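Progress report, Aim 2. The chain analyzed during this reporting quarter is listed below.
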Amino acid sequence: MNAIKVARRFIETDPANESAKILAQLVLALESERSFELITLYELDYKSFQLAMDILKEWRLDRYYASKSKLFDLSLQVSELEQNTAANKSAPEAKA
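Predicted structure tokens for the chain:
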């Protein structure tokens, strides 16, 4: 099971837990691209600290794949635009 799902279940199970609150703050900071005081992670017990590290790893990896996907989409759009432009240029010649 991935860390993001584990964190979600942990936070859902006991949202008043201090570790759950810190993990929730970490996720909010990551999603909103706000700053997060790293020293806060030292307030976590070892298991929750490891979970926070795993969240960071997955978040970075997911972000990489999201960026890769956006690049692919843009490249596909450019390719389609190029094909449409080439088709429009050759269309008048066919009529002549």
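The CA atoms of residues 63 and 69 lie 10 Å apart. The mean pLDDT is 87. These observations will guide the mutagenesis work planned for the next reporting period.
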